[in-house]
Please model this.
Amino acid sequence: MSEIISGHGGKREGAGRKSRFDEPTKVIRVPESRVVEIKNYLKKSPNHEISDIRLLDPLSRVEIPVATERVQAGFPSPAQDYIDKKLDLNEYLISNDHATFIVKVNSLSMLNAGLDINDSLIVDRSIEPQHRDIVIALIDNEFTVKRLIKDALGCWLKAENEGYKDIHPMEGQTFEIWGVVTSVIKKFK
Model:
């Protein structure tokens, strides 16, 4: 059989992905359960300049059983211990994975809306903000979480705690609604 030479395929000098490092890189496979741990290690390591690590498939599937009965504020009946289906939290909490991120609350300004320090907020940047939505806003290069109010005078941000002031953007101030809060993840333990 004769050999075909076409100039396509095979190893070529300068071809392939370029590395930010001064040494060759290698693609490795890791167990999905260890990805977060490895990402955290790489971020902490002083010898790496990694600022953004993305999973090729960011959607994992963990199905959690869903009970058919709603929980009363009293004692549940042991006879009502039925499992109807399974629920994937990604499908339940995220409608647009490319525009969704999680941010942690760092103040008590929205306490009366049920948001406490260290609660995780799921924020969707693709949703058009509406009157009374809880939003993440960027004001003069600082992020804040507040309730968006739209009225005859324009848009302003309402704090849900009497100890904090509402924010009425002034002329010359930068004011941008960065995303709409769709859910809150609150840990009790």
